[in-house]
Amino acid sequence: MKPGRTISLPRSVGVLLAKDLLIEWRTRARLNALVFFALATLLLFSFAVGPDTKLLARNAGGYLWLALLFASVLALGESFRVEQENLTLDGLRLAPADARAIFLSKAVGNTLLLVALGALLIPVMVALYGVQVAMGPLPFAITLVLGCMAISAPGTVYSAIASNARARDVLLPLLLFPLIIPALLAAAKATALVLQGDPMEQLGSWYGLLSGFNLIYWGLGFALFPRVIED
Amino acid sequence: MNTVLQLVSTTAALVSVVLGIYLGVKWAPVGSRFNARPALYAMTGAAVVLLALGSWMGLVWTPPEREMGHVYRIIYVHVPAMWMAMLALVINFGCCIAYLFKASWKTDALAEASAEIGLLFGTYGLVLGSIWGKPTWGVYWDWDPRLTAMAIMLVTYVGYTALRRFVEDPEKRAVWSSVVGIISGINMPIVWKSVQWWRSLHQVQSTPKTVDPDMVLALRVNAWASLILLVLFLLHRYRIALATREAEVALPSALPTDTRTNPSEVV
């Protein structure tokens, strides 16, 4: 990108993010649908497992992250459908901004959406599964942010690909789910430790795994995304 | 005996592999006049001979293992299969990176071929491992880090091959599948190192350094045979991919608007 006037990367990320959040806020339909979908998923787990509170409480972390992952597929799929409706992605490409800014703004936007969703789900999960929370809100928040970031970075790249492909509803989970397994495992384990207490001090190593995962996939997404949306 | 066998198998395999790579360049373009049949027959022959020799060595010539008895003999096919899967996926990773730097249908076709062949060898190795797991560990599938990491990696490549089927535009397909291939390739070091990072049920990698000297030669012969098979499979799949791509790229001239070149109009 070497036109006469370019907008700096942080500034274009901010502008694009503000645009996405504004669209999100004006419709609110996506967030509402996501919240009810994720709540229904949490409820369904308790029906599928049966009303065994001990079992539900022990697996609460895993169920929370599965609900978030399923909801994230809807959120990610939607994040590029919005751009395609009026060919706005072409408009964004023509704008004198770095293509990588589109990745960063979309990935940050998806992370914010998932974190908000997780923050709504956690109290419901605690009440529904009868969980005792052993640790304070800070480790909870760190786990939530790191886990949602881990879903968002590869998810944004893959949803940009899948939104243009045939059978896009099948393709996104098919590509994303196996890739996300290490992050899902780490996030679920970290959540379980936050809920049940961490006498062996293992929480840090799961945070390390999540941070490494984020570092790799945010870096890869940042580097490769311009190639994904080029024509 | 050992040195002679080793020399013969290594020479046969190296000659076949060099022949294969030469063929890949010379023979691949559709309609090429270059007659590759004799060379391909020679490669197939070398593969069959080495496979027969390797099977005899693996089943008869090598001694039974101290603890597992005869059950261990599956390493002569399981280990080479996994090596070849890794090799094919490394080729795929290299092609994906190369394509993003310099777009070429050849790189794209080789990426497609290597991903599918890697998937084939990986699944074969995984199934063989499960068959070995039942008498040794008592279960077909244990949630051991090595097994799980390998299975996850294979599923990511299933996603890769699915993506290739779901995108019609050849250029977009090539770019997107390169991106997905690079992202999926990140898993490979995790799979390779998993047996050292999380020491659990699966033993460390079987390489000539960790295997008993009596068994090294049989393993080598089988690995050379697998390598020739890998190159043969890759060549065939690469040629099919390249022919498909050429048909796709030439498609616009066959659209119904141009009646002279549309075969369906010519009765």
TrEMBL record, chain A:
Stored InterPro entries: Cyt_c_biogenesis_CcmB, Cyt_c_CcmB_bac
Assigned protein family: Belongs to the CcmB/CycW/HelB family.
Function: Required for the export of heme to the periplasm for the biogenesis of c-type cytochromes.
TM annotation in the entry: 31-50, 62-80, 101-126, 138-158, 170-194, 206-225
GO MF term (any one): heme transmembrane transporter activity
The keyword Transmembrane appears for this protein: yes
Subcellular location: Cell inner membrane
Protein name: Heme exporter protein B
